[in-house]
Amino acid sequence: MSQRMERVQKLARQVLGEEIQNLKDPRVGFATVTFVKITPDLRHARVFVSVLGSDSEVKGTMAGLNSARPHLRAELGRQMRMKYLPELVFELDTGAEQAQRLDEIFHKIHTEAPTDAGEER
User: Rounded to two decimals, what is the model's pTM?
Assistant: First the structure.
């Protein structure tokens, strides 16, 4: 990936992250933009969002973000000078949850390990 695309994606992440915090929609809870992946033709952007809360709060936040898509896209256009304004697609970033699950599994394996080397399971 070119340095220009990396800069564009980083700036888009910053702009969208700030604008999401300013949304007045009560459905939108605590959401953090973790990564923005923009296609090379600048027509589409996948916005990965990490959301804290219960399943219903996560669903509400995602619904709120999807309904705010035109506003967020317009703000992106105002703050970034780009030839094309990308269509935004919000996706839930579950990387942190998966890492926590793996950590719990490793911890469980470690604590259940046999204490005697000759002992078999």
Answer: 0.77
Q: pLDDT at position 68, please?
A: 95
DSSP letters for 25-94: -TT--SEEEEEEEE-TTSSEEEEEEEE-S-HHHHHHHHHHHHHTHHHHHHHHHHHS--SS-PEEEEEE--
Tell me the CATH number at 63: 3.30.300.20
Structural domains in the chain (count):
1
Give whole-number Cα distances, 13 to 9, 37, 112, in Å.
Answer: 6, 9, 42
Contacts of 52 (CB under 8 A, 6+ apart): 29, 30, 31
